[in-house]
Amino acid sequence: MTTPMLASATDYGRMYAREVGGELLVPSITTVIGQQANDLSGWHGYMAAKAALEDQRSYRASSSAGLKFAVIRDAASASERFRDAAAARGDRVHNYAEQVALRTMGQPHEVEGHRENLIAHGEQAFADRFDEWWELYRPKPLATEVTIWNETVGYAGTLDLVAEIAGHTCIIDYKTKGTDRKGRVKPLDDKVVMQLVAGLKAEEALVDAEQGDWEPWKHGEAPILMGVALGETQVVPQQANPHLLKSNWFKFCALKRVWDYNRELNEADHEALMPVIPPPTPKELAAAHVAASQLEETPDAAAS
Predict the structure, then answer these.
(1) Which of 156, 165, 230, 273 has its CA 20 to 30 A from that of 1?
(2) Which of the two residues, 3 and 166, has the higher pLDDT score?
(3) SS (H, E, C) the chain
(4) Which domains does the chain show, CATH number per domain?
(5) What pLDDT, in 10s, does the model give residues 35-92?
(6) Residues paired with residue 165 on neighbouring β-strands, in sequence order
(7) Which stretches does the entry tag as region Disordered (predicted)?
(8) Who's near 207: CB < 8 A, 6+ residues apart?
(9) What is the pTM of this model?
(10) Alpha-carbon torsion 143, 92, 107, 157, what sign?
C-alpha cells in the first residue's frame, strides 16, 4: 500500500490535507475506527512471554543482571516488532496488488519488480495466491489506491481498489493475514465493514494531489463492499452484509465524534483537573465570623 501523498502522521493519528503541503484538516478512516477500544493486553503478554522463552540468552540471564535486563527489554517490545514487521509485509503485498491492477488498466506498472521484492523477503506465496484470486474473479479495475474525502462528516481515506466483477461495481479492501495451524488464512475483523462503508459514503475523489483537484465520487452506489483476506495458502473474499451497512455507518460517525471531542479536549487551554483546597476548620470559620461582624459594626461607630 503506497503512502497517500496527502496523509501525514500527527498526535491525533493520521490526517489528510486537500493538497500537497496543505493544512491537515481531517482524520483518516482507520484513525477514526481506531477510536474504538480494543483490548490487546492478552496478546501483548503472550508475545512477551513467547519472546522471552525463545530467547537463547535466557538460560544465562540468571547470572547476569545486564543480560537479564536485555532479555526483558527485548521481550517487552516483541509485540511492537511483530506489528511493524506485519505492517511492512502488508505494504509489500499491497504494492504488488496495486501494480497488478495498474497492469490490467494498461497503465505503467512495476509488477515484476514488486514480485521480486516479495521473493527477496520469502513472501512469494502471497503473490502466487493473489494471482490465483485475480485470475479466478477477473476484476476490471476502475481505480486503484484512490484517495477519497467526506466533508460533511469530516474524514478522508485511500481505497485499495474499485473494480467491476461480473458486471457489479465493488469497493475492495485488502487485508494481509497470517495462517492458522490448519493452514487456513486467518479471518477478517468485522471492523472492515466500517472501513468499507466509509469509503462508499465518500463525497469526492482525488484527481491531482499537487494541484488539489477533486471530483465528485462516482461509486457511492456500489452494490458490493468486499474485504479480501490475502494469505500464503489462500485468499478469502467476503462481502459486507448489506443489512448491517447502516448500523456500521452510524457507528463510524459516532467514532468520528469521539475523535472530535478528544482533539478538542487535548487542545483546550484549561487544565482538565484543578487543585482543591481543604475546607476551613471550625476555629477558622469562627474567626472569619467575628471579623465579618466587626466590619459590619465599624460604619456605625464611625458615624457616631
Answers:
(1) 165
(2) 166
(3) CCCCCCEEEECCEEEEECCCCCCEEEEEHHHHHCCCCCCCHHHHHHHHHHHHHHCCCHHHHCCCHHHHHHHHHHHHCHHHHHHHHHHHHHHHHHHHHHHHHHHHCCCCCCHHHHHHHHHHCCCHHHHHHHHHHHHHHCCEEEEEEEEEEECCCCEEEEEEEEEEECCEEEEEEEEECCECCCCCECCCCCCHHHHHHHHHCCCEEEEECCCCEEEECCCCCCCEEEEEEECCCCEEEEECCHHHHHHHHHHHHHHHHHHHHHHHHHCCCCCCCCCCCCCCCHHHHHHHHHHHHHHHHHHHHHHC
(4) 7-266 (3.90.320)
(5) 997 777 786 787 777 777 776 776 676 667 777 767 678 777 777 777 778 888 989 9
(6) 168
(7) 284-304
(8) 213, 214, 215
(9) 0.82
(10) positive
Q: What does residue 179 show for φ and ψ, rounded to 5 degrees?
A: -120, 135
Query: What distance in Å separates the CA atoms of residue 113 and residue 125, rounded to the nearest whole number?
Result: 15
Of the candidates 166, 187, 174, which has an alpha carbon nearest to the alpha carbon of residue 127? 174
Give pLDDT, residue 1: 40
**Residue-level pLDDT at 63:** 65
